[in-house]
Write a structure and sequence with these properties.
9-stranded mixed beta sheet; 6-stranded mixed beta sheet
């Protein structure tokens, strides 16, 4: 009897030790971001922001050190399933973090759903991620493509524009941004007279700019980002359209691109969930820390990476480091208010931020906030069922 009790006590002690080891072992994070191509600089900013928050926590989240595994996704949807599967199956990551390109993110979400792996999307706004593909263990720290587009539709309608041309890349992000814009703009009494698009990452804009000039709309709404955004803004000015037909855009048009765009971007209006001149204590502290760490000024992509780490931290704290407790992790995030540099935001039932969308005006090398375009805007996702 005594031997049995001793054996049982030892087994329980070993079990407790093993369980503790499970939740204090290194947390494997798979960073699947673009390191080359049009969106390379965006991927770098996201990773910088993510690592900054972890550094501020002493290199640990909920007592667990972080081990990184990285893949360059090349913004190529055709390689996305294989890349995500390698991180999950070969590297055994506990959580996937990625990406920028909406098509790649859709593939990542499929792998995450099929394998039950936690996924935090720090940029790609594909509506389906928090819509049709919504899952209890998939979250986004950025936006849905619908959100900044919808906010700009409201702004342009209120400004009295009646006939607008839209132009974007023909892929999920562009299509959905234009859809959100059109919904709000037409609700406000405006009309989209022409929708122009070209394949991603094509940047041969001249033929489409000629169509815009011929259509003579009141204004143009656009979605481009990264290197493509730089070329579009410069080509728009080069075609003689700047100053004749106002150009508006989702904020990615001018975020992280202003230095390269130079004078051609000055005075342009965009809508986004972050701006350079918020001047809050929280944002000022973040910008100072980021500048010290990376000798660069942060942009919206850095904020989204930072907040992806914050969301991971909040969820892990609630489950004492056990990322396997997905229901409890999700419940904690849905109750949380994330203290972001962009301003506090909550997480919707679709696991997308409910957040203010700012109206920004380009001045110098800043996207200066000139007010809130849409307050606490939630995307129209259906919500995730546990």
């Amino acid at each position: 009897m005594n031997f049995t009790r001793t054996t049982l006590a030892c087994a329980l002690a070993l079990g407790t030790t093993f369980a503790g080891a499970q939740t204090t072992a290194k947390l494997k994070v798979g960073l699947m971001l673009p390191a080359t191509g049009t969106f390379a600089s965006l991927g770098t900013a996201i990773e910088n922001g993510f690592r900054l928050h972890i550094a501020e926590q002493g290199g640990k989240l909920a007592g667990r050190e972080i081990e990184f595994f990285k893949v360059d996704d090349e913004s190529d949807p055709s390689k996305a399933v294989d890349n995500a599967t390698k991180l999950v199956s070969r590297d055994k990551v506990d959580v996937l973090v990625g990406t920028v390109h909406s098509g790649v993110a859709m593939a990542m979400a499929k792998v995450a759903k099929d394998t039950g792996t936690m996924l935090i999307v720090p940029n790609a706004g594909a509506d389906a991620v928090t819509g049709a593909m919504c899952a209890p263990h998939i979250f986004r720290s950025s936006f849905s493509n619908w959100q900044p587009g919808y906010a700009m539709g409201e702004v342009m309608a209120k400004r009295g524009h009646k006939n607008v041309v839209t132009i974007t890349w023909k892929y999920a992000a562009g299509d959905e941004s234009v859809r959100g814009f059109r919904e709000a703009f037409e609700k406000g009494g405006g009309k989209v007279v022409k929708e122009l698009a070209l394949p991603f990452p094509n940047v041969e804009f001249q033929a489409l700019l000629t169509e815009i000039a011929a259509a003579r709309p009141d204004a143009v709404y656009t979605f481009f980002a990264g290197g493509g955004a730089v070329k579009f803004v410069k080509d728009y000015a080069g075609a003689g359209l700047r100053g004749k037909i106002p150009l508006y855009g989702a904020g990615f048009l001018t975020d992280g691109t202003l230095e390269a765009q130079g004078a051609d971007a000055q005075g342009m209006f965009t809508t986004l969930h972050y701006a350079d001149s918020l001047n809050t204590a929280r944002d000022n502290a973040f910008r100072l820390a980021y500048a010290k760490a990376y000798k660069l000024q942060p942009d919206v992509y850095a904020v989204q990476g930072y907040d992806a780490a914050q969301m991971l931290s909040v969820g892990l704290a609630a489950v004492k480091g056990d990322i396997g407790k997905k229901a409890e992790f999700a419940a904690a995030l849905r109750k949380a208010k994330i203290d972001s540099p962009r301003g506090p935001f909550t997480i919707s039932n679709s696991h997308n931020p409910v957040q203010d969308i700012y109206l920004r005006e380009v001045g110098g090398k800043e996207n200066k906030s000139i007010g809130i375009a849409s307050k606490a805007l939630a995307d129209p996702g259906r919500g995730c069922r546990m």
